[in-house]
Amino acid sequence: MAASLNQAQHALAAPAEQLRVLNDPGSAHKPFAQALAETGLAPLTVRGIEVFQINVGKLCNQTCNHCHVDAGPDRTENMTRETAELCIQALKATEAPCLDITGGAPELNANFRYLVEEATRLGRNVIDRCNLSVLLLRSQPDLAKFLAERRVEIIASLPYFLAAQTDAQRGEGVFDKSIAAMRLLNSLGYGRPESGLELNLVYNPVGAFLPPEQSAVEADFRRELETRYDVVFNSLFTITNMPISRYLEFLIRSGNYDGYMQRLIKAFNPRAAEDVMCRTMISVGWDGSLYDCDFNQMLDLKVDSGAPRHIRDFAAAKLGDRSIVVGQHCYGCTAGAGSSCGGATAG
Questions:
Q1: Is 93 exposed, middle or buried (0-12, 13-18, 19+ CB in 10 A)?
Q2: CA angle, 248 then 249 then 252, to 5°
Q3: How many other C-beta atoms are found inside a 10 Å radius of the C-beta of residue 136?
């Protein structure tokens, strides 16, 4: 196994190569489908569409070491206006209360504000998955105000409450920019309970281990960020690093792949598996392709079981009653307290 992984480590950006590594027949890792079957959860099915998530592309102003999207400033994958309009048409056809916009840095897509405006007009709660530093770009002078005026919920990734750890993962100077962005958001009311403007943080471990208990991490971040930098937020979500894309490369390069996978498998939690986020969402790729979640999207694992596979063919009834495509990476969402776009899913 080790030899094949070493050969693969420079070509893992391709979904097919990632899947080859994850599904290596010579591996001793228990298949995720088997873990589901042993706990009576197979096949895993959708309960309906509560979250309509759109990944508008891979363009980003940062290049983070563990990015599961493999995003960066040189990426050209970007959602067109035509596809964005099809997304809004599809959203109208559902009763999903939430539109979740991600990327890349989703704000850099030319159709980001269109999506926000239209979804807000439909009365849906809009989430912007923000890297914080994008709010300080010269090309986005009114972005924070735009989000506040439309009461967009911001879920912002912040690796740690100290500069050294954050910059090691996200690039030199990113921590200071993140704190400056949080201060800007706080000045507009974000993170202050009385305002109703939600600023939530996301924490994921830097190394090859599972995140600590969510409430404990939140307490540490709240205390340190307010004491050291005078910034506040509403909630913090812990997310397990998924063994795909750049993080998979890191695991292989550091010799931690087998150990990390075994750690995830050993921590498999049926309660977390029962409530995985893919059971109540649909994920739309930048090109309009449909997926069960953003992680499947990065592995090019489109929806299955006869459901429409592109936004132009969207059919809420069929997509709201489908079986979910699973794989070895799904252990990341079902380990320990569980992991989702909204943090831990089980006690």
A1: middle
A2: 85
A3: 17
DSSP one-letter string for 295-313: HHHHTT-B--TT---BGGG
Domain 46-241+277-316, CATH homologous superfamily name and number: Aldolase class I (3.20.20.70)
Question: What are the pLDDT digits (tens) for 65-82?
Answer: 778 888 999 999 999 999
Pairwise CA distance, residues 98 & 143, whole Å = 20
What number is the average pLDDT over the span 36-62? 95
Q: What is the DSSP string of 43-85?
A: SPB----SEEEEE-BSB-S---TT-TT--BTT---B--HHHHH
Place of tokens 């070491």: 65
Q: What b/e readout covers 279-297, taking b as 16+ CB neighbours within 10 angstroms?
A: bbbbbbbbebbbbbbbbbb
pLDDT, tens digit, 9 for 90 and up, residues 208-238: 889 999 999 999 999 999 999 999 999 999 9
d(CA 69, CA 208) in angstroms, rounded, equals 18
**pLDDT tens digits for 11-29?**
466 899 999 999 987 788 9
The whole-angstrom separation of Cα 97 and Cα 280 is 11
Distances (CA, A) of 221 to 216, 224, 232, 288, 340: 9, 5, 9, 37, 19
For residues 299 and 284, what is the distance between their CA atoms, to the nearest angstrom? Answer: 13
Q: What kind and span of H or E run contains 222?
A: helix 214-229
Under the banding of pLDDT at 50, 70 and 90, the label for residue 346 is low
CB contact at 8 A, 242 and 295: yes
Q: Which residues of 151-161 are buried (b: 16+ CB within 10 A; e: fewer)?
A: ebbbbbbbbbb
Q: Which two tokens stand for residue 86?
A: 């099809």
CA 345 to CA 347: how far, in whole Å? 7
